[in-house]
Amino acid sequence: MTALRGLWPEMQDTCTSLGLMLSIVLFMGLARVVSRQQLNGPMAHAFVLEFLATFQLCFCTHELQLLSEQEPLHPTWPLMLIYFFSLVHGLTLVGTSSNPCGVMMQMMLGGMSAETGAIRLLAQLIGALCSRYCMGALWSLGLTKYHVSERSFACRNPIQVDLPKAVIIEAVCSFIFHSALLHFQEVRTKLRIHLLSALITFLVYAGGSLTGAIFNPTLALSLHFKCFDEAFLQFFIVYWLSPSLG
């Protein structure tokens, strides 16, 4: 009983974080429904949907990163959360990429015009930065003992290997993920989402302790904005150039 009392505060913090992530998913879903009803122009529609998708992805990843740094009840708990929220994003963010590499790939394959691609890239950039500052404001409320505003202003460098290895890891992760996107297009939607979620979880497991295995330039900017400010060239090469080449 004493052990359970000791675990209860940790469980409360975890439940609070999970509740925040599920709440933002529901709120972004409502915002998408409203935008589809109210917006008529295709460019405005594309911008808003991409903005909402990127905001949701970055918001949840910020909170997942915070949860992963806590002492888990089971070592596979963070991976289970990554898989679950990858499923959630796959089900709710249909029609958006939330990743500049995905937009560039569609443009190169002729599936998207340059104007639409530019609008989506701008929306992703704004969504990533907005999510970062919203998380800073939210953490300042101190809803859990892990929510501290100073966290959002510190550089928590995830790169634990030398630069060439970091470049290779992020490029390979991006190559594998986007290759899977192309090859899974003919697979049934429900199965495809599970396959991609499992792949994301595996990539994070394999490369997470080395570079974070982000393979998404806007997500990397949102998560490590302060690090880009302090070591821009290194982070530009690892988190922007490498995934794009991959």
Question: What does it look like?
Answer:
There is one protein chain. This protein has 246 residues and is mainly α. Helices cover 74% and strands 0% of the residues. The chain contains ten helices and no strands. The chain has helices spanning 2-38, 42-68, 77-92, 100-108, 114-139, 163-183, 189-207, 217-223, 225-230, 232-245. Helix 2 (42-68) runs parallel beside helix 5 (114-139), helix 4 (100-108) packs antiparallel against helix 5 and helix 6 packs parallel to helix 10. The model is unreliable at 1-7 (pLDDT under 50).
Give a quick precis of the structure.
With 246 residues, the protein is mainly alpha-helical.
User: Proportion of β residues?
Assistant: under 5%
Largest sheet: none
Instruction: Please report the total strand number as a whole number.
Output: 0
- List low-confidence stretches: 1-7
The topology string of helices and strands comes to: HHHHHHHHHH
Task: Please state the average pLDDT score.
Answer: 84
Structural class by secondary-structure content: mainly alpha
Report the span from N to C terminus.
51 Å
Count every helix, treating DSSP H or I runs of 4 or more residues as helices. 10
The level of helicity is over 70%
The dominant shape is globular
- Radius of gyration, taken over Cα atoms and rounded to an integer in Å: 18 Å
